[in-house]
Amino acid sequence: MTITALSGPIVSFGTTPTSSAGTGLLGADLEHNEQRAPSYSDLGDAMLDPRVAYAYQPGSGVTAKSLGFFNNTGTVDFVPASINSSAFVVNTASSGISTFTLAAASSAGGTFSTTIIAPETGIATGTLICIDSTATVLSFGSAGTLGVWNPAAGAGRNITIKPSSNLDGGSYSIAGRDIYGYKMTETIAGGSTSLAGKKAFKYVSSVTNTTTPTSTGILVGFGDIYGFPMAVPYVGLNAQVGLIATTNGSTVSVASLPSTGNTVLASTIATQTSTTPDVRGTYASTTASNGTIRLQMVISPTAVSMATVTSTNVSGLFGATQFSSI
Fold first, then answer.
1. Contact at 8 Å (CB) between 32 and 174?
2. 223 vs 5, 8, 122, 280, 289, CA distance in Å?
3. pLDDT tens digits for 11-21?
4. What is the reported pTM?
5. Mean pLDDT along residues 132-153
6. Which of 91, 104, 201, 274 is the most exposed, fewest CB within 10 Å of its CB?
């Protein structure tokens, strides 16, 4: 068997009505399918990812994977690892260091060592430290040609930095990639013993500082601010978030819909920088992750957003292009 690919749009109809005599509402039935019924779709439906690295390419072989979004939504459904303030850097002799040595990945601490196929080059990256899960894609069929983004792989999370002194000058620079593998860089200014980034990283490749710190110890890890899988331009029914805990076999909700108090909307700044908010927006959980509470996000792209998508503009779905200095 093979994959059948058609250039849409495809319209399915069951009747052909006549003119409605000026009402624009009803008309006689000129043609009727006697087997008219709801359409069936084996294994459900998915929206094709329009980005060139993941879209379907006509004539490509079975090894050329195409990806999409199951049920036509950006979905996250996983149990986040507990906050880990030392997931990436544990440094006890920071004086003069400009590039920190990344800590070894630890599944117990919610991190994994991995490489991915870089969407900008199509070749494997160097080693990355991944947060929560490396299984970002679910593949279907014997060849795995078609797949969907895996809701159980988690969302990107914000970076946290804990210096031992609040007198450090300069800033810290974190380089890595988002949940779809695109490069990103964030700069976090010093001056506190508890620093938190605004961007949602899925992978971290390096952490550097721009000036000699006075701190005798620096920890770099991840927090409980989660990136949305699609751009969220406003808070409403288009963006649903839930935290679910299971206690004694009973499932209870411990969080409600996102609000202006716990959500940062997708950055609308035309040219992103290392200090702008996340390009798709973030949700800040008020319930600490503990390895048992489930986070669910369902982002439904609006018709207005979908109407803006072209081969050269996907910002309506995924926000502005990520800033990266590497």
1. no
2. 42, 42, 30, 17, 9
3. 888 888 776 66
4. 0.92
5. 94
6. 104
